[in-house]
Each structure stands twice: as C-alpha cells, then as structure tokens.
Amino acid sequence: MFIRSVKNFRKITTTAPDKSITHRAVMFNAAADGEATVTNALLGGDCRSTIECMRRLGASVTVEGSTVYVRGTSEFKDAELDTGNSGTTTRLLTGLLAGKGITASIDGDESLRSRPMRRVTDPLALMGADVRATDGKAPVYIRPARLRGIDYTLPVASAQLKSALLLAGLNADGVTRITEPVLSRDHTELMLKAMGADITTDGLTVSIKRGALKNIDVRVPGDISSAAFLFAAAAVTGGEVTVCDVGLNPTRTGVIEVLKVMGAGVDIKNYRHEVEPRGDVTVTADALRPFFIGAADVPSLIDELPLLAVVACFAKGDSEVHGAAELRVKESDRIKTTAETVRALGGKITELPDGFVIHGEGGLIGGKVHSHGDHRIAMSAAIGGLGSREGCEIEGADSAAVSYPSFWEDIC
Ligand code: S3P
C-alpha cells in the first residue's frame, strides 16, 4: 500500500465503531438469558472472534450489515475457542468462563500466544478458579470450579484484566473488589451497571457481587482510537477533520488532551450520554508543539501512543512518553515497532525501557515501513506518510482491518 503525501487533509465523517464497546455488548448480552440488538457494531477481525466464540458457547449471534442480533444464554456449553488476534476476547472470556461450570480452551494466533496471561490466571486462581495457562500464555484451559470473591490490587492499570476479574466476580460467592493503580477504561463497569449487575465504583476501587445480567440494546459510538488517526491526519497536514458520533468516555480521551497541548484546535459539539458519552469532534491544525506523557496519563491513550510518536515528529523539539512498559506486550512490542516506524520514515527517536523520546524536526521524509502484523502500527505509519514529503510504502497494510476495516478509504 502506498500513501501519498497530502496537504490540508479535510473531511467530515464518522469513523469505525468502538472495538472495546462492541466486544462487551456482544459478549455480555450473549451471557444473559434474553435478546438484544447491537447497532453500529464493529465487524473487524477482533470483534468477529468474539462473535464466533459466543456462538460456540451456545449463544445465537446473527450479523446483518452492521447490526448484531444476540440471543444469549446463561448456561454455556463446553467449547474450544479461537480468539484470533484479540487480547480483549481472550482475557475477558477467561474471567467470564472461570466460574461458569464448563470445560473450555482458549487459543489464538502467534501474536496472541506471545501475550501475558498470568496477570489474569493468578488472581483467578486466588478466587478458586481452575484455569491453566501454558507457560503464562495462551492456550488457556478452564475447568469447572466454585469461585469466591477477593480483594485484589491490580499490578498494572489494565481494563482487560479488571474486566476479566469483574466478570469472574459475577459468578463468585461474596464480594469481588478490584483496585487499580490508575483508572483504565471503564466500559465494562458502565455496561454491567446498565445490565443490572450489583456493581459499585469508589475512586479506583470497583466492587461486584454475584448476579445475572439483563440484556440491553446497545448503539455503539465511533471509536476514539480510530478517530485519532483522522484527527492526526489533520494535525500533520495542516488540515481540518470533523468526526461525528465519537465515544468520549473520559477514560479514553487522552489523545484529545495531548493534541490540545500540541497546539491543535479541538471543538466538541452535540455532547450527549447514551450509557457512554459521545459527541462530534473537530480538530484543526496549527504549528505543533512537543508533549510530555507520564504514567498517570498512559491508560487514557495507551493505544494512541504509536500514533502520537509519529505526530510528535511534526513538532520541533523533544516529546516524551514514560510509564508505558505495557506497550511491549501489545499486538507487537510497540516500543520497538514504533521506533522502527519513526526511523523508517526519517524521524529520530530514542527507545526507553518504558516509553520513548521523539526528537521532532518539524516533519518527516517518508520511506518504507512494515506493520509487523500490528493494526495500529500500519495506521500510524500511514499518517506519517500522509504528512511526509515523499509519502510511504506500507507492507502488511491489511492488518488495519482488525480494528478499522474502512481505514484506507477513510484517509484517501
Ligand atoms: C482494551 C484495553 C486495553 C487496550 C486494548 C483494548 C479493552 O488493554 O490496549 O486495545 O477493550 O479493554 P489493557 O487494558 O490491557 O491495557
């Protein structure tokens, strides 16, 4: 895929539906004894893995266009599950199935098999679960066990881990109480509450008790992590982009705050609540300034860090990212693959154990980049190419379909 250099990228559009919310809307409704409709669902590779897994567990899930009809069941059957490239499906399902009284295995692709699972299986074992990983990774094997609630502090701020334990807590005796070091995305808490779960949040601690879920229809907002690529396209080309109906959950909007710090204009209209906050966001470019991102900021923009590293090349001066060691265990080692991407486009970056420093020179030359099978690396490279002087060639561009199937059309 070749991305040509573009000036003043302008667009008024919507973006791909939210991946995190689609996973949860399908999975949680499939675990409840009733029917629900999920509209504007994301049907990228990862969410299709969730849909297929829920079918194998006994739910009926039908897809028509971007609408997903779910007839759920609280009585899952034994299953061998393939979660493909999706860490969210793998971790959330491990928690959900641990107390369901079934025998199941969960496995995925090569990248998935390299991602840490002990952070989920260790606390589940404390809850009494019979869940075995393979050298701390997938495949994961689950057998029936009676769960009890625990009081647990997460070693890392991770919504996948938090969600896995909350879902296990739905099938555990007593109270399951989870505390995070920094608040990660809270889509699970919001949706479980809307589905009638006995769940309460107090600062960084969330508690849940055993209980059945009631189905709810969900209209999925646009994914701010996908919209971020369009915002960035405006920022690096001196353009203007409006993305309508984007999810604006404050645990996800870090990228907007950073773009403001960089000097971009950000205007939000039609702000409204529908379980999740959403609105129309316009980003206009100006001369870009460097940024500093510390550990407390990371969870709200974890998936946007490769992109922000590329955008930082268009500012003059050093931008810094610290406290982001989690990037090393994403779909690729995103500290390494981000650094490779920036260098391949002619930028300067220093890798740190837990982040990077980007030495911005006010632009990029362009070049040839490999996605390493990682959707966010492929799309970040494309934005670098759009703003660069010579454009860029991307190998492995098809990986974008995992989270943003229409990405290549949307940036043309
Ligand atoms: C996700 C949580 C994040 C994020 C991933 C989706 C989720 O992972 O990187 O793309 O839907 O819960 P961690 O919470 O493990 O950082």
Description:
With 412 residues, this protein is of the alpha/beta class. The protein is built from 12 helices and 25 strands. 30% of the residues lie in helices and 29% in strands. Helix 9 packs parallel to helix 11. The structure holds shikimate-3-phosphate (S3P).
Quick rundown:
This protein has 412 residues and is of the alpha/beta class. The chain has helices at 19-30, 45-56, 87-98, 118-126, 159-169, 187-194, 224-237, 254-261, 305-312, 334-344, 375-387, 407-410; strands at 2-3, 10-13, 35-39, 60-64, 67-71, 79-82, 104-107, 130-134, 137-143, 147-148, 151-153, 172-173, 175-179, 199-202, 205-209, 218-219, 240-247, 265-274, 276-284, 292-293, 316-321, 349-352, 355-361, 367-370, 392-395.
Q: What integer value in Å does the Rg equal?
A: 21 Å
Structural class: alpha/beta
Helix-residue proportion: 25-40%
The whole-number mean of residue pLDDT values reads 97
User: How many beta strands in the DSSP annotation?
Assistant: 25
Bound molecules: shikimate-3-phosphate
User: How are strands sequenced across the largest beta sheet?
Assistant: 2-17-19-18
The proportion of residues in beta strands is: 25-35%
Total DSSP helices: 12
For the termini, the CA-CA separation is 12 Å
Q: Profile the largest sheet.
A: 4 strands, mixed
Low-confidence stretches: none
Shape: globular
